[in-house]
């Protein structure tokens, strides 16, 4: 096996890696601080498209994690970048929250329910039947279908919530049209993120707690991968997948010496 190049830049998932159910993972603050003092490029990624990078910066600050706005990369930002590259100045009917609508406004998209170029589905706390019906009709009339991320469930204090992937499946059943998912594990999200910080995949590492999104995305983008066991994946789960992370660590605290 060819020896990998030294790690010069880092991408890390947020939930399950830096924080768990709103509480910082022990050692996460030390890891972020060491990254910043090293001057190495880094990004904190999330498939959640609800919040803007500014919102997430404030949420992380409240629990003692100082991540600058420019070091946060969401599936909403990746979706806006993808659309700006593919179809600049277009229009979209959006089911989502401020993280997604702000990102689309910032790249010059017009949000409309009249003959939009795209229907864009993101995360929201209030999926309405009316909005989903409108999405189905617009897709049937020719709008192209984009979804921010394929996650089928999301966490909450009461248990799992249906998320973007589950609602996308409902719209697909009603239209016969599959969406293009921009977020992890699509390596596009990683590549646009790497480009945003001027980093290269062969000298970058991805840290995550999920084999099916974080580790797969890092692998497909050509990055070194670190699975941490502070989130959704236990050691026993790893062998269920046909691919493996480069490293398995108990938590992000064990990665400080790699910087």
Model description:
By secondary structure, the protein is α/β, with parallel strands linked by helices. It is 33% helix and 20% strand. It has 8 helices and 15 strands. A 6-stranded parallel beta sheet has the order 5-4-1-13-14-15, with helices on both faces. A 5-stranded parallel beta sheet has the order 7-6-8-9-12, sandwiched between helices. A two-stranded antiparallel ribbon has the order 2-3. β6 (91-95), α4 and β7 form a beta-alpha-beta unit. The mean pLDDT is 94.
Q: Averaged pLDDT, please?
A: 94
Secondary-structure-based class equals: alpha/beta
Computed over alpha carbons, the radius of gyration is: 18 Å
**In sequence order, what are the helices and strands, one letter per element?**
EEEHEHEHEHEEHEEEHEHEHEE
List the main descriptive attributes of the protein structure presented here.
259 residues; alpha/beta; six-stranded parallel β-sheet; five-stranded parallel β-sheet; 33% helix; globular
């Amino acid at each position: 096996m060819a020896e990998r190049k030294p790690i010069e830049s880092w991408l890390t998932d947020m939930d399950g890696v830096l924080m768990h159910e709103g509480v910082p993972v022990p050692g996460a603050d030390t890891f972020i601080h060491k990254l910043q003092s090293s001057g190495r490029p880094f990004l904190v990624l999330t498939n959640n498209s609800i919040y803007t990078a500014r919102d997430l910066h404030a949420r992380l600050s409240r629990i003692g994690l100082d991540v600058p706005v420019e070091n946060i990369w969401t599936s909403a930002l990746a979706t806006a970048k993808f659309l700006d590259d593919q179809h600049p100045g277009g229009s979209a009917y959006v089911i989502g929250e401020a993280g997604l609508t702000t990102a689309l406004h910032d790249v010059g998209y017009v949000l409309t329910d009249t003959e939009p170029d795209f229907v864009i589905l993101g995360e929201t706390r209030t999926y309405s039947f009316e909005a989903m019906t409108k999405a189905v009709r617009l897709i049937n009339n020719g709008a192209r279908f984009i979804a921010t991320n394929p996650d089928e469930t999301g966490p909450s204090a009461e248990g799992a919530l249906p998320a973007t992937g589950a609602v996308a499946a409902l719209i697909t059943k009603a239209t016969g049209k599959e969406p293009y998912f921009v977020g992890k594990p699509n390596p596009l999200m990683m590549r646009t993120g790497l480009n945003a910080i001027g980093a290269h995949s062969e000298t970058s590492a991805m840290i995550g707690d999920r084999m099916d999104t974080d580790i797969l995305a890092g692998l497909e983008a050509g990055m070194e991968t670190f699975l941490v066991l502070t989130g959704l994946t236990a050691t026993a789960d790893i062998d269920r997948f046909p691919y493996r992370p480069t490293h398995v660590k108990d938590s992000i605290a064990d990665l400080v010496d790699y910087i």
